Amino acid sequence: MAEFLRLNPQFKGIGFTSQRTRDRMVKRLVEQGIKNPQVLDALGYLPRHLFLDEALAHRAYEDTALPIGLGQTLSQPYIVARMTELLLEVEPKKALEIGAGSGYQAAVLGCLVPEVWSVERLEALLEKARSRIKNLKLSNVRLHLADGHYGLEREAPFDAILVTAAPKQLPPNLFEQLAEGGRLIAPIGDEHQMLRVYDKRNGQMLQTDIAAVRFVPLLPGTEK
Ligand code: SAH
């Protein structure tokens, strides 16, 4: 188990079931090329099934994206792991996620990054995500109802920003809210999307393409 998780008193007393299923998922992630032991520990530890509606919970550890209601989806474990691994390369102290959805990716970040913020545009999803995060006692993760196109100005700058819904182009506010030396990861595009890493070096943007992906679109506004 990651040192952080072992030492984190928040995790005491939470009896997680389905450990064997999670261990199999972690083994598969290793085979798929995930190397960061902290990321593997976090995914091996967090109860992914609690982030899904009961009817789908039994499929939580499959190698697939799953619906979380209101037309939204929780990414497959590999994508969550890969994006987290890429983000950790800059050793972020403060991270922002755009698109909290079920709250799973935010919880993963919460195991690995001291301070995590995540914004979501759909209040119904946000409320559920919030109670999951609270039940897991991840007090370093805070969720906020907002249109992620504008980031979270009052908490900027962030060392890392993870966008989990696809904009056609990178919203300029997000890059502006990235700290110097920070990293932003986002799926960019419409029908064809590319997962991109943007690094901020001397105020300049360095861009790297990672892989073709498929995320739900980043939509404008919020819905109560
Ligand atoms: N990261 C999530 C899955 C994300 S699905 C998880 O771990 O479960 C993408 C999410 O982005 C959806 O919940 C969708 O409502 C949200 N979203 C889309 N456009 C948004 C915007 N402009 N601002 C904030 N959230 C947005």
UniProtKB/TrEMBL annotation:
Lyase listed as a keyword: no
Keyword field contains S-adenosyl-L-methionine: yes
Top-level EC class as recorded in UniProt: transferase
Keywords, comma-separated and alphabetical: Cytoplasm, Methyltransferase, S-adenosyl-L-methionine, Transferase
PROSITE patterns documented for this protein: PCMT (PS01279)
Reaction(s) the record says it catalyses: [protein]-L-isoaspartate + S-adenosyl-L-methionine = [protein]-L-isoaspartate alpha-methyl ester + S-adenosyl-L-homocysteine
Pfam family, one: PCMT
Function according to Swiss-Prot or TrEMBL: Catalyzes the methyl esterification of L-isoaspartyl residues in peptides and proteins that result from spontaneous decomposition of normal L-aspartyl and L-asparaginyl residues. It plays a role in the repair and/or degradation of damaged proteins.
The name this protein goes by in its record: Protein-L-isoaspartate O-methyltransferase
